[in-house]
Design brief:
Helix content: 40-55%
CATH superfamily of the largest domain: ATPase, nucleotide binding domain
Number of helices: 19
Largest sheet: 8 strands, mixed
Length: 500
Amino acid sequence: MSYMGVDIGQTGCRAIIFDEKGQQRAQSYREYPTVMPQEGWAELDSTQVRDRCFEVMREAQSQCPEDPVQGLGISCQGEAFTPIGAEGENLSNAMITFDTRAAAHMERFSTEFGIEQLYRITGHTAHPMFSLFKLLWFMENRRESFDRAVKFLCFEDFLQHHLGVEPHISWSLAGRTMMFNIQSHQWDSEILDAVGLDASRFAVPTASGKIVGSVDPSVARALGLGPDVQIISAGHDQPLGALGAGVVKPGKAMYATGTSECITPAFTNPILSDDLFNNNICTYDYILEGMYTTVAFSLTGGNILKWFRDQWGQEEMREAERSGRDAYELLLAKIGRTPSPLLVLPYFTPTGTPYFDHDVYGAVLGLKLTTTREDVLRGLLEGVAFEMRLNLEILDRSGIHIDELRAIGGGAKSPIWTQLKADILDKPITTVVVTEAACFAAAMLACAAITEEPLTSLVERWVQTGEVIEPIPENAKRYSERFETYRELYPAFKKLPSIQ
């Protein structure tokens, strides 16, 4: 028997098939472009996302036709939604996390409703990225499409819809809309009433790991799937990634490097403290029912390496074409093993936690005529890691103690980059064999639901750890000293007049 995990990210989608022992059998990946019609807007063409998802599902299954998939789970990015018409059609693109056009709607609604009341209900503090505020913008600026929409679906329930089942949204993903009550596990009537919406226009909330239906037979045939593939609720990609890295109890956390960087722990009770509220660090459902999680994150993450590659890595891209090696690997091999002479404020996008600042800029300090390209790249990566250290300190202060980090995502494949992070955080980082952990966890949920094996038992069987990367003491000491200066950068730069 085999199980498929599908992950719908911000830059591409992936399908991976695993057998009953958690061994990878097949995988497929497709990218799609971000649509940026104007400053502050960031969208995905939902129809293209659906088509790419179908392509990777078809291709992955074609790689092991003798072992038809029995069940599949869908992991996806948070916040983005697609309005669906009466005939099941997509009515517009989906606004993704980086889209900040709803800033004014966020300010107005959260002030009128009460920012602390919103936090107590949803476990989140207001930010333009959340679906609630994007929906208010859509209501005001795309009224015809808003009125035509019978459903507003996030990408997990969106793909379920196109696979032919009644859409169900996992609790963890629903939490990222900022319209979901994390205590009652239902769409919150007080918030929906304030918006003027009915819960029937959203997917049915359900705990992760529940069978929600079977792929429509005609769709299954078109995708090369078997006749009775079960769809299992999975959830938001970050907590799924944590589960796929083996985070099943307090004290452990996932450290993911994808487009953004995230630290995701698990804990037993919801924590709604003033410290977390003041630092915009959320609390919402984890994948394991009865547990909770948070996401401490920087929206500038692996995308800063991509930006550097595209702007100054032409030599490595040409070498990658000639040799078949990865251009990122070639760049990272040149950054040295000791701290950069630079200090970087890594806000090349809106910030994540703790500041939730969408009107901010990055900065590189310490440039000289002797500064090398490699100094700049290492400094950029150090800046992101310093930002994650800032977040770890807040979590620890709030009672969320993390002793072990598990590295996943594309960045986890680089020992050099992971060592840099271990040095700056001054914590050991454990690697895992399967770094595409969100897909892994989605397939794991499918296996547990169909075989009825307890999920924690399955995690113990499937998740395999690799090397533990310990901090280099002399680097950790230098970084700790420099971190004290890093703390002061954001407050100092916010006092400067805008450059635009």
